[in-house]
């Protein structure tokens, strides 16, 4: 420490005990090593190295068009008719929701849509949320609200076709969720 700074410190801190910390100068090699160890985040793409081939994989983010998202695994014409009736009962239609297939969503990162509150209602028919890498345990026909998003798990639409008890339980949960 230069002497002129010592006199200044003595004037500023009269009566206080001062400690001198020895200066350690880093070698240029040490600085280069430290800078090379800093990890830089990679957005939108991940580099996968398999043997000698280097492959670039782009991460697709799920961005819904509507605030209500319905997730299904399988979907037939009969399922579509039932879903249309279910939505009509809660004053909605197929044009006001995003109907997403598990096969499509499993290839995308859905966390962005949830973390940015792009979704207000998320209903899954026969698909556990763990399949899309969301660790949210849901009980059938019980709504759960997390960070202003209402979640509902129901059995698959094909199971609901002829099961009156499951339809009643779904109706009760949908009333709680929408009406």
From TrEMBL:
Coiled coil: none annotated. InterPro entries: DNA_pol_III_psi, DNA_pol_III_psi_sf. GO terms for molecular function: DNA-directed DNA polymerase activity. Gene3D superfamilies: DNA polymerase III, psi subunit (3.40.50.10220). Its EC number is 2.7.7.7. It comes from the Bacteria. Keywords: Nucleotidyltransferase, Transferase. This is DNA polymerase III subunit psi. It comes from Arcicella aquatica.
């Amino acid at each position: 420490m230069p002497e002129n700074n010592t006199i200044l410190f003595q004037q500023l801190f009269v009566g206080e005990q001062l400690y001198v910390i020895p200066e350690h100068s880093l070698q240029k090699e040490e600085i280069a090593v430290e800078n090379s160890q800093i990890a830089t985040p990679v957005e939108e793409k991940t580099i996968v190295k398999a043997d000698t081939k280097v492959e670039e994989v782009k991460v697709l983010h799920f961005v819904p068009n509507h605030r209500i998202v319905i997730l299904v695994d399988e979907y037939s014409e009969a399922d579509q008719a039932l879903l249309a009736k279910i939505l009509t009962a809660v004053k909605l239609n197929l044009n006001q929701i995003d109907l997403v297939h598990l096969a499509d969503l499993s290839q995308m990162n859905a966390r962005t849509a949830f973390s940015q509150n792009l979704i207000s209602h998320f209903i899954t028919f026969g698909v556990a949320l763990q399949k899309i890498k969301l660790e949210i345990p849901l009980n059938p026909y019980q709504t759960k609200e997390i960070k202003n998003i209402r979640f509902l798990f129901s059995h698959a639409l094909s199971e609901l076709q002829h099961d009156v008890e499951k339809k009643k339980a779904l109706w009760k949960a949908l009333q709680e969720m929408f009406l």
